[in-house]
Amino acid sequence: MLKIGIVGGTGYTGVELLRLLAGHPQAELRAITSRADAGTPVSQMFPSLRGYVDLKFVHPDEAHLDQCDVVFFATPNGIAMQQTRALLDAGVRVIDLAADFRIKDIAEWEKWYGMTHACPDLVAEAVYGLPEVNREKIRQARLVANPGCYPTAVQLGFIPLLEAGLVEAGSLIADAKSGVSGAGRKAEIPTLFSEAADSFKAYGVAGHRHLPEIRQGLANVFGKPVGLTFVPHLTPMIRGIHATLYGRVRKDADLQALFEQRYANETFVDVLPAGSMPETRSVRGSNLCRIAVHRPQGGDTVVVLSVIDNLVKGAAGQAVQNMNIMFGLPETTGLNVIPLLP
């Protein structure tokens, strides 16, 4: 059994981790930290976990995280980098679901996240946890930077095209929409029900924190920098990301076959039949990314539709998938969850 600690278990990502790990046959939850809610039973805060998680939240100073096999950070940006070195020195593996270790260019990270990085040397060691690209590196990793939700959906949609050199890499467009849970479990006016319901809006058009992460990932696949316009939107739903991706085709190819072959051995990427239109509800609660590829009117534009649950494949589910890889378990362990419908 893997002894597991979770730092910051009171947010949406934290409760999703708890839901998945509570049903994981090789996971033993040892500690779930919260400074503000120490002593509160987890099932009191999250009634859905009653009968599945019997622990109480504990103060980080009393969590004995150094006795765990792996620690997940489900915390705001800037927290994991303060504690990771001590855990690694104690022989604990770390999976950070925030952005502290995702971007290799420290100056770029500090520009977008507005703080000084506490351990830039560990950024170089951290493995970017997109299994469909970095599986072998993840197996050996001590520290995994779990990808963001938008970057997961966008990269999985563009990767086959860039690997095959089939699109003009200087003019990619990602038009992406996210449910409100992507903003986290906090009280902010833009995500209040009366503000977000019955409405639809773009945000971060001038620049979003996930933009450098996506560019970095796509450049690593393509072998040189790519040009990307990324526009996120807030939609009046709780879960889900829908990314509509555009590229200019450089040469003719069977795009359907390309995607099917690229992801043929990827359990958590489902390439739909030609002509399909994936819906966010088709992945709700699951670790799946569902993809459809189109070439409207047979023209020179390829359109890829990519959908995920932002809290699962976009966060907690992918983190558990990475844990499974790191400890030599089948990737599907604890993740064989059928999507919820309706």
Automatic annotation (TrEMBL):
Give the Semialdehyde dehydrogenase NAD-binding domain ranges: 3-141
- Keyword NADP on entry: yes
Q: What name goes with this protein?
A: N-acetyl-gamma-glutamyl-phosphate reductase
PROSITE patterns registered for this protein in UniProt? ARGC
Q: Which domain of life is it from?
A: Bacteria
Q: Which GO terms describe its molecular function?
A: N-acetyl-gamma-glutamyl-phosphate reductase activity; NAD binding; NADP+ binding
For this protein's source organism, the top of the classification is: Bacteria, Pseudomonadati, Pseudomonadota, Betaproteobacteria, Nitrosomonadales
What are its E.C. numbers? 1.2.1.38
